[in-house]
Amino acid sequence: MRLSLGLVVACCVLPGCASVDPYAHAPVTQTLQREDALGECARRFQASDALIDTIGTRDAQEPRVPGFPYLRVDRVLARLAPTAAGEVEQTLAWREALAALDDAARRFELGNAGVDGALATALTTCRQQLALADRHDLPMLIDAARVPDDYSNSMRALGLYPLTRHAFAAGIRNWQRDTLADFATHAVTDPVAHRRLRYIPAESPDGVPMLKEPAAPGLPLMSPSELARLIVRHAPRFEIETASDDDRPGAVTWQSDQTGHLQIGIAREQPVLYVRSSHAQLDGHWLLQLIYTVWLPARPALGAYDVLAGRLDGVVWRVTLAENGSPLIYDTIHPCGCYHLFIPTEHVHARPQPETIEEGLFIPQALRAPAPHQRVVLKLAAFTHYLQRAGIESARRDDGVVLALRDEHQLRALPLPGGGTRSAFMPDGLVAGSERLERFFFWPMGIRSAGQMRQWGRQATAFVGRRHFDDPALLDRYFERLP
User: Is 333 within 8 Å of 340 (Cβ atoms)?
Assistant: First the structure.
């Protein structure tokens, strides 16, 4: 049943309706006490948040801004915050981008909660009124618009991180050594034990419009048609060593298990490559990034005590583009944030890195930037789905299973078998049912439920040190552009 606007607003006057963290900070506390339209707007947001948290449909992709619960922030907009204190137009554009993030996230949250569209429309008007009233609080907003990192200091303290990190660092070095050997082997031959199946991205995105990211001052702008062209041009092809159905990619869906309980699964009959966009800074310039994710049913156990095995797996492939649309740097992780590899092109140079125990730049191979008539092809291993090698082939070679190109934002509101929608991610940004046993061993590194699949924005990629996949300053830490 769809919930009415009046029922949602009435929620906040019921006993036990508790406020959430963003309302514990100035200036919103004073606004809530006002007996006028502005106070009513603040209470409307508070009521919607109470409902969202009660039903459990909170979206963790971008956090709300403390003191400004009608705004949300990601790491790109947080990086742009200091520039917002410049010209009036830049300030307005930045605030509008924060508001756009909240509008999009709240529509997913309310829709998944079964609320009709009237509340989202009412909140749009209220958001504008609150922003106008808070226009003089820009210094406070700039200071508050930050994204907390995904490392737990308390877990690291309890796990004696200064001591235990040395053992983890040794394990990381062993994995890097094995990865380098595997890449070197597949550069010469292809010693796979099972046949490889080929997957080719579709020639046009599935569903339009897609990738409607909020505009902000300083970020590159392009038309939807140009963005769609770049998405198709840079979408990777896959050659996956296939030993079982767990090595066959598909669409992320809600499914009923044998007991009738709902769980996230992979519909192999619908091969899909999910895509989203973001931005990064390199040598002072903001660049477009395209992020592609292929999801697989599971990482099967390779032995009786395989702590890395579990339901659901995937590979995330990111392309950072120069201003002319050619690739500068590739990098990749699994959706858990694990196995971060960098693959630079000839247009960048790795910066010298300090000698440290922390997990840093790891380059198993370089790859020349493909010409417009060429495509990148990724070779993945069976079972583990580790990347074994990246190569280049002619775009004219189109044999293989077609992967539909879909907007990754669709995962925030997937259809349920009985009607309605629900996000693929829990309110903490994790995918239920994808836990790994490694979480019981890796927690001293401060990452909650290590190995579990995660939503964009929640992917910490270093066990030793601190690093986030969506950090727009990450590439600038490791690379510089060549003339």
Answer: yes
